[in-house]
Amino acid sequence: MEIINYFESERRDHWLRELSRCDWGAGVYLYELLRDGTFFNAVGEGSRVLLLTEGDELISFCTYAQKDDIQPTELTPWMGFVYTFPQHRGHRYVGLLLEEIRRLAKAQHVEQVYISTNHVGLYEKYGCTYLTQMRDMDGEPSRVYVKHFS
């Protein structure tokens, strides 16, 4: 398995096609942002799309971004758009992506990352702590977690 930064890949067209297989609403939105070239406008310059791959297959993905679906807020950076394709769930692949984010954050001297989700029990497995509930861009309540890196 390998984690690829979408924007550093020479095979962006292939990975974009792989992302288009996602039927989750937020994943579809991420695909559209990438397809339309509006990703950085939505989540901030310097943000990344991390792809967990096995050969030519996309297993799981997420973003490491300045902004996510909780806006406006001063909280940053965010691990967002976290998705594992159904046939690959149950193998703790989110942990591999979170470890890559930890590595990137450490290089930027960032001590924590935030996660917006409606899942209960998923991120706690990876040492994330529930912080608060906030409203997302659609006005819906969302749980906000923080993962401290030390």
How would you portray this structure in words?
- The chain has 150 residues and is of the alpha+beta class.
- The chain has one domain (2-148): Aminopeptidase.
- 27% of the residues lie in helices and 32% in strands.
- It has helices spanning 12-19, 25-36, 39-43, 93-107; strands at 2-5, 48-54, 57-65, 78-84, 112-117, 129-135, 141-148.
- The chain has a four-stranded antiparallel sheet with strand order 1-2-3-4, with helices on both faces.
- The longest helix is centred in the middle third of the chain and has 15 residues, at 93-107.
- It is globular.
In total, how many beta strands? 7
What is the CA-based Rg, rounded? 14 Å
* Head-to-tail CA distance between termini: 25 Å
* Helix content, binned percent: 25-40%
Inertia-based shape: globular
The oligomeric state of the chains shown is single chain
**CATH homologous superfamily title:** Gcn5-related N-acetyltransferase (GNAT)
Structure annotation, total helices: 4
Under CATH at level 1, the class stands as: Alpha Beta
Let me know the average pLDDT. 95
Portion of residues in beta strands equals: 25-35%
Structural class of the helix and strand makeup? Answer: alpha+beta
For the record, the CATH architecture stands as 3-Layer(aba) Sandwich
User: What order do the SSEs take from the amino end to the carboxyl end, as H and E?
Assistant: EHHHEEEHEEE
Sheet with the most strands, sense and barrel status: 4 strands, antiparallel
Spatially, the strands of the biggest sheet line up as: 1-2-3-4
